[in-house]
Specification:
By secondary structure, the protein is α+β, with helices and mostly antiparallel strands. The chain has 3 domains: 78 residues, Immunoglobulin-like, CATH 2.60.40.10; 461 residues, Glycosyltransferase, CATH 1.50.10.10; 87 residues, Immunoglobulin-like. Helices cover 35% and strands 14% of the residues. The chain has 18 helices and 18 strands. Strands 1-7-6-3-4-5-2 form a 7-stranded mixed β-sheet, with no helix packed on it. The longest helix has 24 residues. It binds calcium ion (2 copies) and zinc ion (ZN).
């Protein structure tokens, strides 16, 4: 994601014609909005499964796609309040009970249907392979071989153009900095965004090595005995190492002065420039090379040592330059208009560097830096993002293997992560589509915000095995793969309705109908930023609908390495089965840290239904059931309950033991500080 992007002048006419198409699509959408939204790839067998519709259907069937036999029947439950990000009353249908592997589709009582999907524990293996391989297609400076790239084969690009020092720079002349990944839809290479991308991929491997050990995703290094996620990351790391100056500082980016046209990378001729040293870039660089020193040690000690030396040199540069470099943060010099990744604070990048260097060396100076520079409170208060890598620093320190790590600080970090997980669960529960985004969170690259939040939830689960964390994390994967208000996948090549017109120069200029696969579009962006999107925003489009699958909409439909990285993390974690199965077979935590009211089960029900909830601390609890007219029909004063998981069964009778009639009821859970409400249906 870049703070500064522009469309080449030649695309102006294209934008105008796209606007006309967009208006036609808008007027048509209300009549054709009959897609039952569900993950277009699928669900692991044991996972929670939910379909969504805004049509007036009361029940649905899940059919075997081939035989059309009914495999499962369920009821829809309308949301209590409209979805805050679309304004829609969204009905959700739970089919978690269907666990038999197969290919299915959902048909509602109104006749609407979903796209087909798979239920199988292996279903996300393909998503992981495809999205990790998405980085391979971004490789700069080497030919993409037909054996791996298939129709997307192409010659090497930018081998001799990268890079010439631009003025005003600390250096002059030419320094070879070929290699690395193209950053996004353009061919630039930016250290800051490389940092969070590689940092996220290495975090996945370091935290969950069993889930990320695959050596068969179909890149040139597959089968070499090294996990492919490390091979692919190393391609970027080798480039990062070239971006370091002899004094330890790291140059900000390698780009042309202006965004190149929509040509294939091998046809993008002319000089590309190395820009100034940057302390944000240097901090990110130090963090990822320090982490690489740990992660690659078992596979290549020489490379690991080289990375650690580079990290130390970068740290020395940061110590020698205690305030942000360049002053105020990097900005483009006159005449340059490529990405700026504007970031006025390098304190989080320095902190991340210190945390990773401490974890790799155990040296007191890094520990001391982290402890005295970590903020006093609110350590993790949002998902990580390229301008704020603080959460990555905190995760490393929280899960540190160093015995000298501060116990008190780690305890505070633990509380901070769990508080953020609760905030994410609240957003998830408030959303009609179970998206961990508030309406204000639909920013440029919002899909990555949801997925980075999901990563925090996975680490929350690691701290405390509340199934709600895992369910909510998986829901973010389902969201980008089709369980959303647009009824579409946001990942090229995946699902029945993936993006076709991503803002991506190779995809737009290779003459192949389908875009390069495995790439995540930025997603809905309520704040605009390109002419297509600006028009949608100004016409009052709801936040979660501000997306258009069209090349000119770089503010909603570009792809970027820092967006793909958390998708690789999520899909790899879920795909391995290691996460899901170990999680689901684990006993519920007796000290669940969350406040959460679960959907009753079964629902609708006739005989009895189970109502389960979690509370974070001991408190007086009360369960009330209210009918549609607001009359309280049942109350359970549960008294003072201990922290953790609780369940109650309700038999559908009122306080006098009379059987209540069919209909919709609300059940309210109230504690000392919080309450929650959900809807249930009695069916006689
Ligand atoms: Ca490999
Ligand atoms: Ca920053
Ligand atoms: Zn290139």
């Amino acid at each position: 994601m870049r703070s500064l992007t522009e469309i080449p002048p030649g695309l102006g006419g294209m934008i105008r014609s796209v606007l006309i198409v967009a208006l036609v699509e808008c007027s048509r959408s209300s009549a054709s909005a009959q897609i039952v939204a569900a993950d277009q790839v699928g669900y692991a067998s044991a996972s929670a499964k939910t379909a969504f519709t805004i049509q007036s259907a009361d029940s649905f069937s899940v059919l075997d796609e081939a035989t059309r036999h009914v495999a499962f029947r369920g009821g829809f439950l309308p949301s209590i309040v409209p979805d805050p990000s679309t304004g829609q009353v969204v009905s959700s249908g739970d089919f978690s009970g269907l666990k038999v592997p197969g290919k299915y589709l959902i048909v509602t009582s109104r006749g609407d249907s979903s796209y087909p999907f798979i239920i199988a524990d292996t279903v996300f293996r393909g998503v992981y392979a495809s999205t990790l391989k998405g980085f391979y297609y971004q490789r700069c400076g080497m030919a993409l071989d037909p054996a791996y790239a298939g129709p997307y084969t192409r010659p090497a690009c930018h081998t001799t153009s990268d890079g010439f020092f631009i003025a005003p720079s600390e250096s002059t002349g030419f320094c070879p900095v070929a290699g690395g990944w193209h950053d996004a839809g353009d061919y630039g290479k930016y250290v800051v965004n490389a940092g969070i991308s590689v940092g996220t991929l290495l975090l996945a491997y370091e935290a969950f090595p069993a889930q990320f050990s695959r050596d068969d995703i179909g890149i040139p290094e597959s089968g070499n005995g090294v996990p492919d996620i490390l091979d692919e990351s190393r391609y970027e790391l080798e480039w990062l190492l070239r971006m370091q100056k002899s004094d330890g500082g790291v140059f900000f980016k390698v780009t042309k002065q202006n965004f190149e046209g929509f040509v294939m990378p091998q046809n993008d001729s002319g000089q590309r420039f190395i820009y100034q040293l940057s302390s944000c870039a240097t901090g990110d660089f130090a963090a990822v090379t320090a982490r690489a020193a740990r992660v690659y040690r078992p596979f290549d000690t020489l490379f690991a040592s080289k990375c650690l030396a580079a990290a130390r040199a970068a740290w020395s540069f940061l110590l020698a330059h205690p305030t942000i470099v360049p002053p105020g943060g990097f900005t483009n010099p006159a005449g340059t208009s490529t990405g700026q990744y504007g970031d006025g604070s390098d304190s989080d990048e320095r902190l991340w560097a210190a945390a990773e260097l401490f974890e790799s060396t155990g040296e007191p100076s890094f520990n001391a830096y982290y402890q005295s520079n970590a903020p006093a409170s609110g350590y993790i208060s949002a998902p990580m993002a390229w301008p704020d890598v603080g959460p990555l620093a905190h995760l490393t320190y929280l899960f540190s293997a160093q015995s000298s790590a501060s116990t008190a600080l780690r305890s505070a970090l633990r509380q901070s992560l769990l508080a953020e997980c609760q905030a994410l669960l609240n957003k998830h529960d408030d959303s009609g589509y179970r998206t961990a985004l508030a309406s204000g969170d639909y920013v440029w690259g919002s899909n990555s915000v949801a997925l980075n939040g999901a990563i925090l939830l996975l680490f929350g689960y690691r701290l405390s095995p509340a199934t709600a964390y895992l369910d909510a994390a998986e829901d973010q994967l389902h969201y980008v793969l089709g369980a959303n208000a647009l009824g579409r996948s946001f990942v090229t090549g995946l699902g029945s309705r993936p993006p076709k017109q991503i803002h991506h120069r190779p995809s737009a200029s290779d003459g192949i109908a389908d875009p390069v696969p495995g790439l995540l579009a930025g997603g809905p962006n309520r704040y605009g930023g390109d002419p297509v999107l600006d028009q949608m925003v100004s016409s009052g489009t709801a936040p979660a609908l501000c997306y258009r699958d069209t090349t000119p909409s770089y503010a909603s439909n570009e792809i970027a390495i820092n967006w793909n990285a958390p998708l690789v993390f999520l899909s790899g974690y879920i795909a391995s089965g290691g996460g899901a199965s170990s999680v689901r077979s684990a006993p519920r935590g007796s000290l669940s840290p969350i406040f959460r009211l679960e959907q009753n089960y079964p629902n609708p029900f006739n005989g009895g239904t189970r109502i389960a909830f979690d509370i974070p601390e001991r408190q007086l609890m009360q369960l009330r059931i209210v009918d549609l007219l607001g009359r309280e029909v049942y109350t359970d004063q549960m008294g003072s309950l201990s922290p953790g998981h609780h369940e109650r069964t309700w038999d559908g009778r009122d306080r006098q033991g009379r059987v209540l009639g069919s209909g919709t009821y609300f059940y309210y859970l109230s504690g000392a500080t919080r309450s929650a409400v959900r809807r249930l249906v009695v069916l006689r």
